[in-house]
Amino acid sequence: MTKIPTLADIYTAADRIAGAVVRTPTNHSRTLSEIAGAEIWLKFENLQFTAAYKERGALNKLLQLTEAERARGVVAASAGNHAQAVAYHGRRLGIPVTIVMPKPTPMVKVSQTEGHGATVVLEGNLYDEAYAHARKLEAEQGLLFVHPFDDPEVIAGQGTIALEMLADAPELDVLVVPIGGGGLISGIATAAKAIKPGIEIVGVEAELYPAMKNVIDQSNLPSGGDTLAEGIAVKEPGHLTRRIVAENVDRIELVAERDIEHAVALLVGIEKSVVEGAGAAGLACILAKPDRFKGRKVGTVLCGGNIDTHLLANVLVRELVRCGRIARLRINAQDRPGALAAITAIFFECGVNIIETNHHRIFTRLPAKDTVVEVECEARDAEAIDRLVGQLTDAGFHVERAELD
After folding, report:
1. Is the pLDDT of residue 367 over 70?
2. Nearest to 351 by CA among 384, 323, 324
3. What's the CATH architecture for 324-401?
């Protein structure tokens, strides 16, 4: 049976990787604390060179290879942060690195990984197929496989995060940690429970991928779908990690997509920090379930910042829609001269800016003499949009407002 890493292993890992990874800050967020009704501390692992915590575990693993293993090289399967971590530190240490990625992996991730000096092999349409091919290359070429989470040396490296958090904020009584395969929370829980036995460890999974919760709670929740938190979208957690989670994690929570989006947007707006969906999952849980954390000293890990810029833009605009600052209105009007002018005059009176307009005359159930004017608009606050809808209605226009969810 694989050895479970201990607190001593994690302290050794911290000494081993010191100076080669960023000792990221653990900062108190006054604004988020006020919103949540709890004292919130954030660990900014998105400030690592590759913008994710994965460097810690990957480097701890690579530094323990023999000279012969280093010479042969390593292989890993990943479409994201683990790939870049292994590639970056492999090049630093002079170790040949092969990364197997699924064929649909965005080219930006492929090029970033190649930019760190790795040989990238595209194989299969899913991670499982890429993983199987990586294990095949391991056997055929005598490479050493670096697992993204189910490895005691990788877990020990990730556990160094807890050492830093509790050194910077020893008063923390809850740690909220995202779960994918379980390597991050296994390392953090092992260290935190050994240092401070009374601390509570809460794991967080995306609602669409409750893999670890299904194992630990013996439930059978469905798994799959498009999630913003692709970094924790795992269908099968590790075998070593599930043992550690069962022993050291107090409970596992699930968070909905809209809550993850909200957390990503708040971190940009309040902390001025770009965090990917998986990295924001812990904060999403705290904000979505405030009664479970109210009045407590809560730390969470912003474990990665690798989010596509176009996707981030969509998230931020959708947040403005949910806040009521951007709206799309469908306004029924007579198709005659002056109708649009009457509508825009009301927008002007309410101080609401028109972003885009469209007329729909054909594909509508209205009489042939009528039209639908679809207007996308932006205002200073939600009250201005509400005022606008009220005045349009008072003026005799029928108004429908598009909703996100």
Report:
1. no
2. 384
3. 2-Layer Sandwich (3.30)
